[in-house]
Amino acid sequence: MGQKMDPHGLRVGIIKDWDSKWYAGKKDFANNLVEDVKIRKELTKKLKIAGVSKVEIERKANVVRANVYVAKPGLAL
Predict the structure, then answer these.
(1) Nearest one of 48, 53, 51 to 67, comparing CA atoms
(2) I want to staple 50 with a disulfide (CB 3.0 to 4.6 A). Which of 12, 30, 40, 75 is the partner?
(3) Cα(25)–Cα(18) distance, integer angstroms
(4) Could you tell me the fold of the domain covering 24-75?
(5) What is the torsion angle, in degrees rounded to the nearest 10, for the CA atoms of residue 28, residue 30, residue 35 and residue 38?
(6) What is the residue extent of each domain of the chain?
(7) By C-alpha distance, which of 63, 56, 24 is closest to 40?
């Protein structure tokens, strides 16, 4: 029987890029990860009608930027 693996996980770093772009030490890593999940859930829930396909999160110093890719940008305002 073959081993099953997520196709996205195989392509990260080769064909696809990471969904989150940031670095954190051991102390902050878990908090940033939990915050990313909350941001994704909230944006997906609020913009459900716009058809969210991907949410990219970038963190720099004290700035968090979320790029939201939607099917219907006119409804995402």
Answers:
(1) 53
(2) 75
(3) 18
(4) GMP Synthetase; Chain A, domain 3 (3.30.300)
(5) 180
(6) 24-75
(7) 56
Dihedral of the alpha carbons of 27, 31, 33, 34, in degrees to the nearest 10: 150
35 Cβ partners below 8 Å, 6+ apart? 64
SS3 49: helix
Strand segments, DSSP code E, in the chain are 20-21, 52-60, 63-70
Query: Under a CB-based contact definition with an 8 Å cutoff, are residues 68 and 75 in contact?
Result: no
Helix/strand/coil for 35: helix
The pLDDT tens digits for 1-57 are: 677 787 777 777 778 788 899 999 999 999 999 999 999 999 999 999 999 999 999
In angstroms, how far is CA 73 from the centroid of its own chain? 18
